[in-house]
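protein under study:
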Amino acid sequence: MWFAEPIGAWLKDGSAPTLSPTSIASLSSRISSITGRECERCGGAFASGEPHFRVDHTLWHQECFKCAQCFRDLDGEVYFRFDDRIYCLHDFERLYAPICQRCKSPVLNGHVIKAATGSYHAECFSCDGCLRDLDEGVWVSDGLILCFDCKEAKRQNPEYICVQCKHIIEPDELLKLHHDCYHAYHFECTTCEQTLTSTGRRLNEKWYCERCYDLQCPSCYECKRAIDPDQERSVAAMGHHYHVEHFRCARCLVPFHGKPFFVNRELPYCQKDYIENFGERCFVCSRGLTGESVRIFNKGWCKECYACHCCHRRLKPKDKVLEENMQPVCKKCMEKKMFQTMLKERQKRIAVEEKRKT
């Protein structure tokens, strides 16, 4: 940190500089030394005897000696040099000054101490546990800087230290955020603005008390409790939300866990129970039909039971068939005389039925 003093200003206005008086002999040598030199800011030359500012080994015109950010005149002001530029106190604090992690103020005077947890004034660099100086070494634990004694005590008797106030947290006051520990009373509920307790919860980057948190979360349709998206898995089905373990078959009560389910009268069933209780049954073996089955002639067949009524050859779902007594007959049997006979009998039967209707 420096105070700006114009060189040779006393020759111009007849008054000696107030900060660092300069002798005539030394001033003359300094004024003569500007011959052939250029201004650090504008690159222009200096006139003989022209008042100017000297910063380290650089020279500045009086009108060029301004803050690089706000262009404020720094004549007689406190200034800082950073990356070959000069700044007023305000802009240096705002742009570049390190912030002390202990007192939260800019580090401007003296030495700045850099640690794993941030920057510190020399007088602020102390143990977060006992506030003693750290002359004998520094240990970092859970974002805290500790002396050896406090480090050992923390290892043997773990305690939670509030990141915000650095005080010990009792178990019934603890809230955790991104692996950091806080006293719950440092936060308020986003909805009701009550001071939080250790039951406070976080949702979408906002804090809520337990009651308001439950109102923000979907409720399980089965148990009616709120589903915590941070700690509980859930599933959306049939227009409702469920805890994973509560979305289960209405008959055997086994959770589905991603397996197919079937709905009857707004209740979910596993495949086995749905088929046994509500499903269509195979015309041949009477077993319940699943998705892999054949439905034709108002009847259902298992894939294993779907066969020609005449030759009993197993059929594929896409095979061409003809109906005989509401059962499938294959193409080969169609071409046989036996089939022609059956066809005539069928036509006679249809004719008899039509006469009865009339």
Notes: The longest helix spans residues 337-357. Residues 1-32 have pLDDT under 50 and may be disordered. The radius of gyration is 45 Å. Residues 333 and 339 are 6 Å apart (CA to CA).
